[in-house]
């Protein structure tokens, strides 16, 4: 077993942040799988646009088909699960590197891909598509923009830290 390296603050921070995001998105996916109906209702209402201002100029965007709504929800859960798995792999690679392993590149690559998947889901998916295309911002009861923004910040901060280069890499 390789000897432990001296304290490396950036790789440690990257490990902790990647692991935190991995745990979070894994719990989100697990919750959506084991309590399917709760967030299914959220997705259905957002896609149906039934709690928005019902502006006729926007309502043509609504997806009222339960089948299409459920397909969208299952795809979201699959994306969350894949994101969690990629981030768990990234966390494991960071942890191995902290214990004396080699190769920051693999840890950084897996973490970057997973964090970008997180940003795509919550930034592009929930904020842009849900918030703007389906006018989720208009709903008082089914508005997930604040939660999506928190997730974008968490993923974005982790992405920045993961891609910083320490003194040992310069």
TrEMBL record:
UniProt-listed Pfam families: DUF2165
InterPro entries in UniProt: DUF2165_transmembrane
Keywords tagged on the record: Membrane, Transmembrane, Transmembrane helix
Transmembrane segments: 12-33, 71-94, 115-135, 147-164
Keyword Membrane: yes
Protein's UniProt keywords contain Transmembrane: yes
Protein name: DUF2165 domain-containing protein
